[in-house]
Each structure stands twice: as structure tokens, then as C-alpha cells.
Amino acid sequence: MLEETAQVVRIDGDEVWVETQRRSTCASCAAEKGCGTATLAKVLGKRRTLVRVLSDQPLSIGDQVVIGIREQALVRGSLAVYAVPILLLLLGGFVGELGAQRFLWDNAELASVILGISGLIAGLFWLRKFTRRIEYDDSYQPLVLRKLVNDAAKFVAIR
Q1: Angle 124-136-64 (CA atoms, 0-180°, nearest 5)?
Q2: pLDDT tens digits, residue range 83-95?
Q3: DSSP letter assigned to residue 28
Q4: Please, which residues bridge with residue 10 across strands?
């Protein structure tokens, strides 16, 4: 399970909205000074992201929590977003090339480009249907793992 700390900012019935802060691991990398990703992270700064999470714990606005998402959900989601559209783009281009050779089309490049773009568009439509199907699927949703106790509350509890 991949974990991240967040702060509860809104509660709407069963839905809990938390705010996370994007962090870069560039400071721990040896190639920080020569890397474009590190430069981009400095330019964009630390942005906050609003995320809807599942929770069965009693929470209130301002609570610090640890949220998590299953690795399997992250891998499947990443494959859906990146691999499927690209594979359909390449498949469309390949079919365009084969079709040009088989049916003696005049312009194989044009057929490859048109069918490749058609494959990409088909992949994006598939992705849209996929994301709508998993939008409320619990296995793909981040969830609150535990509530963090702030330092002041720890100090009072110890005394």
C-alpha cells in the first residue's frame, strides 16, 4: 500500500476530501543538478491536490490523516492511462502500413497516420469508459488508513 499524509478539508456525507502536498524526491537524487525533472519541480513549486477518499473513521475538518492506495490499483490505472492509448496508436499505424501494402493504397504514410490517430482516439474513448466504470470502485479508491494525533494532543495526553 502506498501511503501519504493529508489534511481533511471537507466532509460531504460519506465523502471525505483531503488535501495532499506534492513532494519531489529530487533532493535525494545524485543527478539533481543535471536533471530536467528537478528543474521542473522547482519551477512548479509544491502544489496541493484535493482528493476524495473513503473513510469509515470519524473525522473532522483539519484532522491530519494517512491515506493509502493499493499498488495494484496504481499499476492498473497507470497502464490504462498510458499503455492502452499508445498501443492502439501503434496498432493503428501498423494496420495502416499493412493495409497499404495489401490493398496497394497510394500513400502508406497517410494511411498509417490516419489509422494511428484513429487508434489513439479509440484508446482515449476506451479510457473514458474505463474511468467512469472504476470511479466508485472501492479497489481503485484511496482510503484513510489512520488518523494522526498532533503534537499538542500527545503532550496533553502524556501529562
Answers
A1: 110
A2: 999 999 999 999 9
A3: G
A4: 17
Characterize 60-77 residue by residue with b for buried, 16 or more Cβ atoms within 10 angstroms of its Cβ, and e for exposed.
Answer: eeebebebbbeeebeeee
Give, in order, the Cα–Cα distances in Å from 91 to each of 95, 119, 132, 147. 6, 7, 24, 47
The type of residue at 90 is L
Residue with cell 496498432: 91
Beta partners for residue 2, in sequence order: 69
Global pTM value:
0.68
In tens, the pLDDT along 41-84 reads 666 556 678 888 888 888 888 889 999 999 999 899 999 999 99
The residue count for the chain: 159
What is the count of structural domains for the chain? 1
Domain that holds residue 15: 2-158
